[in-house]
Design brief:
The protein is of the alpha/beta class. It has 3 domains: 158 residues, Chitobiase/beta-hexosaminidase domain 2-like (Chitobiase, domain 2); 298 residues, Alpha-Beta Barrel (TIM Barrel); 133 residues, Methane Monooxygenase Hydroxylase, Chain G, domain 1 (Up-down Bundle), CATH 1.20.58.460.
């Protein structure tokens, strides 16, 4: 993402009277947090001209991505070279695999990270050299993504980063009900996934008829071409494109024709560059057969029989994948009982009969769990007979409790250490792709390094990314995120509190008024006025500063409602100030606030954009309640 403030900062550093190499190095904030970052002494700047040295065997696309990163940071001229300069006049950037001779030489005595997808970065101001070393091609690509963040600073500190992911699988599953993403939205999402070092995208929209209701039928040629283009975009971003099929509602598990239909579907997808597959058996009736043949093959219908039948089908699919390519990645499946870790006859059948290579997904202790702990994950391992791949239903908003909401709270209440108990995490995002990135960033940062994950810092970084580095837009986005903080579950209590920042301010106002001290009351009302101004201005500030027009469009009705609620709170603050001064204007201000609040509450979601249409919710239960209560907080003799 281009950084709008890069050139002014670069110009300022070049004109600085203090040599940056002599300045104090400060620890950069990198997201996801690296496994190891050691800070050295001194700093350096890129300047307008650099030398790029790609070691033999470096993926040209990764080298080209590095060039894009450098140009976005203000570099004007990039000169290619083949060998290191011991005393370079310009910054030289070395990139390649860690076992390349040139890269080993550039690293000197530094030991590179050798884990899968690992990378090492050294910044050495004393020799004017930056080295990016990947343990493999994916690791080198991730190193470039870290470089993208580093060069947004005016000065690059001397440092060494050794980094690799804690979880092997990290990404998203487009598994929601309702309007699927467009191909353009998916392509933008894949570009986003690259920036947060994800490696997996599962194509599983519930409303794709050729993946569910009409799964036996071939895709139209045009759609197949689009899927191939999407798979190519995933490959460019070092993301595994996984195709998921959902045959459960109609499949006959024992029918050779249905097994062949799966093979035929997968063969067609192989032909367009898709090589990883997934069978989804969630949200189906599994205690009755779809055909008489299954009754004959597996006996009376029931949970245990369903588990046995599913295992037989999945084992046949897995065996076919292995026959075609012994190195093919394993099949992924989501079971019908995906939502808890209780041992059941169904889970026992999968545990006993399912090929151990098949990856099993699990959503936690509920469909939308309020928390996930290490003991929860261990219980799932026992229940399914293998470590599971977590399908985390956050921030998905396709169920009734989420009507009118964008779920944009930080990703929390997942216990550090889960990396040792899971094979990975896939986030199920919202129908709105761009707003989903806020929470998805947290999911993926946690999956990369769960022990060093900081929810609040990651949340703030996500806002800066959406704002393209614009400070005012970042602040406005955080104000907006707070009004969309609540995260419902399938239970009775949400797993994130509603609008905590705003709630704290409104609580201070209530307490100041109740305290009876005039000076404290005046101060609290002044703070309320500032907050109301921020709420009212946030939508226009975001629209003017956001780096992604898609985000603005997909959040449009929420911005419209927020502006009205902000104005309602402004009038409420004015009403409290007037009441505190015993002014007759208080009643008029409060009446205006009620009218604006009514208008705000009437704003509705974009028709058809989500599974459930309805009124937009902005800090509901917090903001609306305060506006309703405000006229009674300060007594006056004014008739209402």
């Amino acid at each position: 993402m281009p950084r709008r403030i890069g050139l002014p900062l670069l110009a300022a550093t070049l004109l600085s009277p203090t040599p940056l190499a002599a300045q104090v190095a400060t620890r950069p904030a990198i997201f996801p947090a690296p496994a190891e970052l050691t800070l050295g002494a001194g700093t350096m700047t890129l300047g307008r001209h650099v030398v790029l040295i790609a070691a033999p065997g470096t993926d040209p696309a990764t080298a080209a991505r590095a060039e894009q990163v450098l140009r976005a940071a203000g570099v004007e001229t990039i000169t290619a070279a083949r060998r290191l300069d011991r005393v370079p006049a310009r910054v030289q950037i070395v990139l390649g695999l860690a076992d390349a001779t040139l890269v080993r030489t550039a690293l000197g005595d530094k030991t590179p990270d050798t884990a899968r997808e690992g990378y090492t970065i050294t910044i050495a101001p004393t020799v004017n050299t930056i080295t990016l070393a990947g343990s493999d091609g994916d690791g080198l690509f991730h190193a470039v993504q870290t470089l993208r963040q580093l060069v947004q600073r005016p000065a690059l500190p001397a440092l060494m980063i050794r980094d690799h992911p804690a979880m092997p699988v990290r990404g998203t599953i487009e598994g929601f009900y309702g309007k699927p993403w467009t191909m353009a939205e998916r392509t933008r999402h894949l570009d986003f996934l690259a920036t947060v070092k994800a490696n997996t995208y599962v194509y599983s929209p519930k409303d794709d008829p050729y993946a569910r209701d009409r799964w036996r039928e071939a895709y139209p040629a045009a759609t197949l071409t689009q899927l191939g283009t999407l798979a190519a975009a995933a490959a460019r971003n070092h993301v595994d494109f996984v195709y998921a099929i959902s045959p459960g509602p109609t499949i006959c598990f024992s029918a050779p024709a249905d097994l062949q239909a799966l093979r035929t579907k997968f063969d067609a997808l192989r032909g367009i560059g898709i090589h990883r597959f997934y069978v989804a058996l969630d949200d189906i009736e599994y205690k009755k057969w779809n055909c008489d043949a299954d009754q004959a093959a597996f006996g009376p219908s029931g949970a245990a029989a369903a588990g046995k039948a599913q295992a037989q089908l999945l084992n046949a699919v897995q065996a076919d994948l292995t026959r075609r390519d012994p190195k093919a990645p394993p099949l992924i499946m989501v079971p019908t009982e995906y939502y808890d870790a209780k041992d059941t006859p169904y889970k026992a059948a999968l545990r006993d009969d399912l090929d151990p290579k098949v990856v099993v997904q699990w959503t936690g202790t509920d469909v939308v769990p309020p928390a996930i702990s290490i003991p929860d994950a261990r219980a799932a391992t026992r229940a399914f007979g293998r470590k599971t791949l977590l399908w985390d239903n956050y921030p998905v908003n396709d169920y009734a409790q989420t009507t009118g909401r964008l779920l944009m709270a930080p990703y929390t209440r997942r216990e550090a250490g889960l990396a040792g108990e899971l094979t990975g995490i896939l986030s199920n995002p919202m129908n709105q792709e761009a707003p989903s990135r806020v929470a998805v960033t947290g999911v993926l940062a946690f999956a990369w390094n769960d022990t060093a994950y900081d929810a609040q810092q990651t949340w703030h970084w996500s806002a800066r990314e959406l704002a393209g580095g614009d400070a005012r837009a970042t602040a406005a986005l955080l104000t907006f995120f707070d009004t969309q903080h609540m995260a419902p579950t399938f239970g009775s209590q949400p797993w994130q509190e509603q609008a905590p920042r705003l709630h704290a301010v409104l609580t201070r106002v209530r307490e100041a008024v109740a305290n009876g001290d005039a000076a404290t009351r005046t101060q609290a009302i002044a703070e309320l006025t500032r907050v109301a101004d921020d709420l009212a201005a946030a939508p226009d500030t975001i629209r003017a500063g956001a780096a992604d027009a898609t985000f603005v469009e997909q959040a449009r009705p929420w911005f419209d409602a927020l502006a009205l609620w902000g104005r309602a709170l402004q009038q409420t603050a004015a009403g409290l100030a007037a009441a505190d001064a015993a002014s007759s204007a208080a009643a008029r201000y409060f009446a205006d606030a009620r009218r604006l609040a009514g208008d705000a509450a009437a704003v509705r979601t974009i028709p058809g954009a989500t599974r459930f249409d309805g009124p937009i919710r902005i800090a509901d239960g917090v903001l609306d309640r305060f506006i309703a209560d405000a006229p009674g907080l300060i007594g006056t003799t004014i008739a209402r």
